[in-house]
Amino acid sequence: xxxxxxxxxxxxxxxxxxxxxxxxxxxxxxxxxxxxxxxxxxxxxxxxxxxxxxxxxxxxxxxxxxxx
Length: 68
Fold this sequence. Notes:
The chain is mostly helical. Helix content is 68%, strand content 0%. The chain is built from four helices and no strands. The protein has helices spanning 9-19, 23-33, 39-45, 50-66. Helix 1 packs antiparallel against helix 2, helix 2 crosses helix 4 and helix 3 (39-45) packs across helix 4. The longest helix is centred in the C-terminal third of the chain and has 17 residues, at 50-66. The model has no long low-confidence stretch (mean pLDDT 91).
């Protein structure tokens, strides 16, 4: 079962800035969680495969979940 992060936009941004160390990964996660951009669009925007973007979002989401 997928766990959703039920946080305000401000709290989400704060956590991303504090715990996601890679700038590109921060940008991807922000665009996905806050702006709701689909994986395919993120892949084009960041010149990555869709699978790689999904992996970054999953890993970053897991990191944030550990620090809530």
